[in-house]
Structure prediction request, 353 residues.
Amino acid sequence: MFKFNEIKQVHLEISNNCQASCPMCSRNIDSGKENPLIKINEWTFEDFKTIMYPEFLKQLHSFYFCGTFGDPMLNNDLIKMCAYAKITAPTVHVAVHTNGGARTTDWWQKLAQALPSDHIVVFALDGLEDTHHLYRVGTKFETVLKNAQAFIAAGGNAEWCFIRFKHNEHQVEDARRMADELGFARFTLKNSSRFIIEPRQAVVDRAGNLTHYVEPASDTPLKFIDRKVIQAYKEILADSTIHCKAQHENEVYIDAYKDFYPCCWMANIPYTVISDDEAAGVRNEMKRQHDDMSSRLGTVNLIERPLQDIIDSEAFQTMWDDYWYKEKMIVCARSCGVGPTNTFAKFKDQEVK
Prediction:
């Protein structure tokens, strides 16, 4: 594994708060209520300067604000953090991933001016006016579009990221044309990887009422992780060869509590609600593996322990032989595994927030 001075990219979750209620986000559970394991937390500007101190910032190629549960726009110090990075390491690439439904147009103009010249803000726009809200529950298409236009007009580089579902796949080319007309720098497509057991997901409001279903796009190679995949997960693991994305890109992840994880996929595990269904056994095993990894690493809070101390520790440098080649971590096989029978490998295009 890479050493601290070889880190080139950092993934930050500076807030685990979000105003949206996307049905397959880990912050929500099947009843339509928020995940009870998640306690709202966010970084302060001082936290950012402590963890992303000048010498560390200057060694990076890039860092990005995204996360597992929250939207960076909900952090009140985001603009300060971007301005600090612009002054401290003006050549670093900064990316921000957002649902785009929060803040005023004036705020978005200020963000564009605060970001370094090499930047991108990725707006999640999953359809057009009549479909976007079906997955991005709690956001309004016209609000997101207005915020994106204000950002672009102020000199910002924006990307339209479109997650395809059955209800919006017919709108891809219209959305692509709209993105071009409005000045988006890029337009990207993704398929959701979050269909578990059933090939559709119920959307339930906060009162517990079923409102509609979302289904995968018609040409998704494997539309959902079905019962056969779950039952055969041990055989799939045995056949998997893990090519770690974090290792390949020399990347680390830091969550909203300022805790270090090797990647965002691992950071999701402690906050997984174990439902009484066919996937419960797999989820429990993932938690067991996560707890074993945590006990080997020790303290991972970066306010209490420097990142360099964790990364350069013997535990971090040596434990991957066990987790990749001996007892393979399920999360690693699903996210970064390849193999002749590894159906997990068909989920490489992960859904973004």
Summary: Residues 16 and 114 are 22 Å apart (CA to CA). The radius of gyration is 20 Å. The chain has a mean pLDDT of 91. The longest strand covers residues 158-164.
